[in-house]
Amino acid sequence: MSERVVVDPITRIEGHLRIEAQMEGDNIAQAYSSGTMVRGIETILKGRDPRDAWAFTQRICGVCTLVHGLASVRSVEDALKIEL
């Protein structure tokens, strides 16, 4: 028999997150995550020069601006195969 496990809300994060898992015995058969807070950063970045993404992504969160900027820079470097 399967069991449905829901964790909502996920705390200690910026924004809102819900996790749902369908258990079959001790195994997770299916899992879903739902973010209910959309800021539209992906839409804002469409059509822009990827090298400018760091400046926009730093504004995702008021607490962890540096890590969002660094993650953006690393993502662009990986996409363009830039090695330092």
Structural account:
4% of the residues are buried. A hairpin with a 2-residue loop joins strand 2 and strand 3. The protein has 2 domains: 1-37; 40-84. It is 30% helix and 27% strand. The chain has a 3-stranded antiparallel beta sheet, with no helix packed on it. The protein is of the alpha+beta class and 84 residues long. The model has no long low-confidence stretch (mean pLDDT 88).
Largest sheet: 3 strands, antiparallel
Number of domains: 2
Number of strands: 3
Helical coverage, percent range: 25-40%
Strand content: 25-35%
Put simply, the count of helices is 3
Average pLDDT, to the nearest integer? Answer: 88
Return Rg in Å.
17 Å
Encode the helix/strand succession as letters.
EEEHHH
Compute the separation of the termini in Å: 52 Å
For the biggest β-sheet, the strand order reads 1-2-3
In terms of structural class, how would the helical and strand content be classed?
alpha+beta
Low-confidence segments: none
What overall form do the CA principal axes indicate? elongated
Summary tags:
alpha+beta, 27% strand, 84 residues
Give a brief description.
With 84 residues, the protein is an alpha+beta fold.
Helix and strand arrangement:
Elements: E1 2-7, E2 17-24, E3 27-35, H1 41-45, H2 53-57, H3 65-79
